[in-house]
Fold:
Amino acid sequence: MIDELLARDLGLDAFLLYAPALIAEKIGRRGQIRDYLARLPFDTPWLRACRRLADGSFLEAAEVFVEMDHLPPEALARLRGAEVLVSEGRRPEADAQLERALAFFRSVGATRYLREGEALLAAAS
Structure:
């Protein structure tokens, strides 16, 4: 799927790269997705968020999503950002991000992400 997206001229539909950008590092495609996003000759809030996600700047991306009032991608970006903070030993900051993400996941009954976030919260303790 990612290859098909990257082979297309997405133009203003580049927001479709949000999910791949979110997991780019985990699937070994960070460079490819970053390069694609960098070549796009325009700027939109979605592209700014996707570029930050692909760069691994999850919390900066979350703030762009806040500006756009898009809660689901904000919560996912905060969850990924919390993972990075935990890996860096920055527990208080990770906990703050997790609480914000978990509040959203609880409000919509997103049990998969609740479990993931709660496990990360427990691991950070």
